[in-house]
Amino acid sequence: MSILLIAPDREMQSFRKALKSLDPNLDVEIWPDFANKERINLVVAWNHPENLLGQFPNLKVVSSLGSGVDHLMDDSSIPEDVTITRLVSPSLKTQMVDYVEMSCFNIIRKTPEYYRQRQKGIWKVLAHHSKEEISVGILGLGEIGGYTAEKLAANRWQVNGWSRSPKKLEGVKSYSKKELASFLKASNIVVCMLPLTGQTDGILDLELFKQMKKPGFLINTGRGRHLVEEDLIYALDAGILEAAVLDVFEKVPLPGTHPFWNRPRITITPHVAAITDPNELAQQLIDNYKRLSSGMELAHTVNREDGY
Ligand code: NDP
Ligand code: OXD
Predict the structure, then answer these.
(1) Atom of ligand 2 nearest to the CA of 87
(2) Label partner for 216 (CA 20 to 30 A): which of 11, 239, 252, 302?
(3) Which residues line ligand 1 (CB under 6 A)?
(4) Which pLDDT band holds residue 139 (cuts at 50, 70, 90)?
């Protein structure tokens, strides 16, 4: 039995080391170097090459290196009987809370505008918003979104949340799937923390921006394809939105010629809102590996029909 780590654009030695420190007898290889494809029964994949996962005859489990699984849902080479799992970890949640709260503070306290003024040597007081006037609406109240919503509420933000099924979260006004319009009407800063599925692809469009409470701001930490990029530019130019913070993009790295780079009201970060901790991933993989070996049900499995 062997674990294969496939993540061409990531440094994977630290993940191998974390796995080996938990179980020195474990056979862990890093793609493209592996000895025998027949021995591989668990793969960890992130931005993996197309049609690769169909070639391991004894593959039982494919785990995402992160929380999202859209890269695995898009891969038709993964056989039907292979279980797909994803990472659910404490530090992904706490990092996301920090990123979203930092972004909300930057929005209401106008931090990017002060950076720009500083570059030009301008001393000018700008009117800013208070937490009491601005409400934060989180699209997606799952492991990360639900946790973030509760933490922001505990930090005195007014928080709304939207998910397929209604939720009971401390201090959070929860809206169900059919209540999207009411959720948007009540939310100034909309934060996308949805998984990318057939239903959520392109959800951040002009129609959605128009329905938001004004002044309106967008934070996207979900996936690039949630956003209709030209609609964001239109909404900013037309004054429908004031500013946006984007951590995820349809094409990465964001091409140097992309119009987002020339928009001062768009803050850009390179998919760093929450970064997988090798030790946490290793612990979860080992737990599932033991479950697999003893014929038990795996943890954090993905429902292929729902796509998340
Ligand atoms: P979960 O699967 O735990 O939660 C998903 C949430 O979205 C659930 O509340 C679910 O509703 C809701 N949802 C799904 N589909 C719909 C829909 N069609 N309409 C309304 N609500 C919907 O995911 P996580 O919280 O773990 O992660 C969310 C996403 O965050 C990941 O898929 C990934 O794309 C992104 N992410 C980004 C990171 C970054 O660094 N930028 C880091 C980590 C994650 P219900 O509860 O009813 O099922
Ligand atoms: C993600 C992650 O899914 O980084 O984006 O975990």
Answers:
(1) 6
(2) 252
(3) 66-68, 92, 140-145, 163-165, 177, 193-197, 199-200, 221-223, 247-248, 271, 273-274, 308
(4) very high
Q: How far apart are the first and last CA of the chain?
A: 27
Instruction: Tell me the average pLDDT of the chain.
Output: 97
What pLDDT score was predicted for residue 1?
Answer: 79
Q: What is the number of the ligand 1 atom nearest to the C-alpha of 69?
A: 32
Prediction pTM value: 0.97
Helices in the chain by DSSP H: which ranges?
13-22, 70-73, 90-108, 111-119, 143-154, 180-185, 206-211, 229-237, 278-293
pLDDT in tens, 71-126: 999 999 999 999 999 999 999 999 999 999 999 999 999 999 999 999 999 999 99
Asked whether 221 lines ligand 2 (CB < 6 A), one says: no
Amino acid sitting at position 202:
G
CA proximity to 188, closest of 162, 148, 159, 164: 159
Q: Residue 296 carries which DSSP code?
A: P
Q: Which residues form the catalytic set?
A: 223, 271
46: which 2 tokens? 């992130």
CATH of 90-268, one of 3.30.460.30, 3.40.605.10, 3.30.450.20, 3.40.50.720: 3.40.50.720
Residue 170 has pLDDT above 90, yes or no: yes
Quick one: average pLDDT of 185-211?
Answer: 98
**CA distance linking residue 17 with residue 11, whole number of Å:** 11
For domain 2-89+276-294, the CATH class is: alpha beta
Within the chain, all domains assigned CATH 3.40.50.720 are found at 2-89+276-294, 90-268
Whether 120 and 108 have beta carbons less than 8 Å apart is answered as no
Among 160, 193, 246, 304, which residue has the most ligand 1 atoms within 8 Å of its CB, making it the best to mutate? 193
pLDDT at 194 over 90: yes
